[in-house]
Predict the structure.
Amino acid sequence: MDEISLRRWRRDDSNILAEICNDGDVQRYLLLSILPYTVDDACSFIEYAKRCESEGGEQCFAVVLDGLVIGSVSYTIQTGCHSNSASVGYYIGKRYWGKGYMSRALNLIIDKIFENPSVDRIYAEIFTENGSSARVLEKCGFVCEGTLRKAVVKGREVHDAKLYALVR
Ligand SMILES: CC(C)(COP(=O)(O)OP(=O)(O)OC[C@H]1O[C@@H](n2cnc3c(N)ncnc32)[C@H](O)[C@@H]1OP(=O)(O)O)[C@@H](O)C(=O)NCCC(=O)NCCS
């Protein structure tokens, strides 16, 4: 079948979410820095996602392959003079990398975001070293708008980031 879909997080996703996130390779280019990542950490995230769903803020979805949760994608509509922009973030379990799944999931979230007529721009900031994430964004039509020098601190290291955006 190989069907990719998105749905809201459920409390009974905590075990699979912990399994996906408890992996240094998955976290390497994420702002998330929790290792080991436990089922309790996953439960806290799912509660956060549910709060945001009802109160606003980051809108978080599980990426589902044929009924099985394999990753995460989220967006946040910005405020003030950036209120026509949405940021996106995503990850997928390592065993599912390189099969085109995140490109398909990102296309689904793009469609969802652009259902909101107020949004003109979707953007992502990625670590400069994250070649596969850059490729996903390019496959989905994003354009690199430049390098944000020394923009991200992860642990003790400072990294450059690349800014990618897709406009309506
Ligand atoms: C980045 C990530 C989401 C990609 O997911 P995925 O399902 O493997 O992505 P896809 O299979 O749709 O596309 C990956 C593309 O990157 C390419 N790629 C893989 N490694 C690469 C590298 N080091 N440099 C450049 N391109 C690379 C693949 O060949 C593929 O391109 P292709 O379809 O033209 O062959 C996944 O690797 C991941 O979850 N990484 C950890 C978390 C993360 O970095 N998230 C992004 C934070 S901004």
